[in-house]
Design a protein that fits this description.
Number of helices: 9
Shape: globular
Strand order of the largest sheet: 1-8-5-10-3-2
Helix content: 25-40%
Number of domains: 1
CATH architecture: Sandwich
Bound molecules: 2-oxoglutaric acid
Radius of gyration: 18 Å
CATH topology: Jelly Rolls
CATH class: Mainly Beta
Largest sheet: 6 strands, antiparallel
Number of strands: 10
CATH superfamily: q2cbj1_9rhob like domain
Structural class: alpha+beta
Strand content: 15-25%
């Protein structure tokens, strides 16, 4: 697979916080992913759905072995390689599906290593790889981002309580600032099978899904420069794997992407809130 304009995409990812690689998922993989995710989603209870009304279903990718194939999907690894990420490591991921007629996802960022000074530099510590399984538009809940907010302070940084807070997830107050629109926000509408790559520090949200169809995304988290991260961060990442439904064969499949940390440094403390160093 030829990645178009990889240097431009790299520059955009570093400066704006995201880029899109078109047409990564091939039809057979798309069909298998739709089938497995639909089965997992159909099994969700009303209670589970109510607890994650804003994001939509959050199902760990360790719930099905097919996702281990996606972690090492050749065309995605080729895309990372073309962007200069030669030794990425993988830590976790979720199936996030907005049911028909569901509310927007609140603004948030997903980085947990704000206690370390490297989090205030251009180095991408953690990337999301998002695979949307349907074409997305503002009508059915496409992604929205605030460009460069991974490196620059935005008023939302002061407004947001703990990202993924339970009250926001339940949409107890739809008028909360975390659900509103902000100057400069950008819609990222994609075709099914495109890959959105972004910095975990980037402020992002999604539109409501006003359509009659599910809008499913699979988000996988990678660490493009694992070996260059502080040891305490590596130690934390090394502990993130979950057992759940992956077999020995699944773990072997992703062995090269496993974030192994052998040292004895204490894992970094989880902190989702940027400090005053973010200017
Ligand atoms: O549902 C979406 O479009 C975005 C999901 C998201 O915010 C995430 O995976 O961190």
């Amino acid at each position: 697979m030829e990645i178009e304009k990889p240097k431009e995409k790299y520059d955009q990812l570093i400066s704006d916080g995201y880029c899109v690689v078109e047409n990564v998922l091939e039809d057979d993989m798309m069909i298998r992913l739709r089938s497995v995710t639909d089965t997992l989603l159909d099994a969700q209870t009303e209670e589970q759905l109510a607890a994650t009304r804003s994001s939509g279903s959050m199902i760990s990718i360790y719930m099905h072995s097919l996702f281990s194939e996606l972690v090492v999907y050749t065309r995605a690894l080729l895309a990372l390689d073309a962007l200069g990420f030669l030794r990425p490591k993988f830590s976790s991921g979720y199936v996030i599906s907005k049911p028909p007629k569901s509310p927007p996802l609140f603004w948030h960022q997903d980085w947990w290593g704000w206690n370390d000074p490297c989090s205030y530099t251009a180095l991408p510590q953690q990337l999301f790889l998002m695979y949307y399984l349907v074409d997305t538009t503002p009508y059915n809940g496409c992604l929205r981002v605030i460009k460069s907010s991974h490196l620059k302070k935005h008023p939302l940084h002061d407004i947001l309580p703990n990202a993924h807070g339970a009250d926001l997830q339940r949409v107890e107050n739809p008028d909360h600032p975390a659900f509103q629109h902000y100057p400069g926000e950008i819609d990222i509408a994609v075709n099914a099978g495109d890959l959105v790559i972004g910095d975990s520090r980037l402020l992002h949200a999604s539109h409501s899904n006003q359509s009659e169809e599910r809008r499913t995304v699979i988000t996988l988290w990678y660490h493009p420069f694992f070996a260059l991260l502080p040891e305490a961060m590596q130690a934390h990442i090394g502990r993130m794997r979950q057992k759940l439904h992956w077999s020995e064969e699944d773990w072997n499949r992703i062995a090269e992407l496993n974030p192994n940390y052998q040292g004895d440094i204490e894992p970094m403390k989880w902190n989702r809130t940027p400090g005053p160093e973010l200017k």
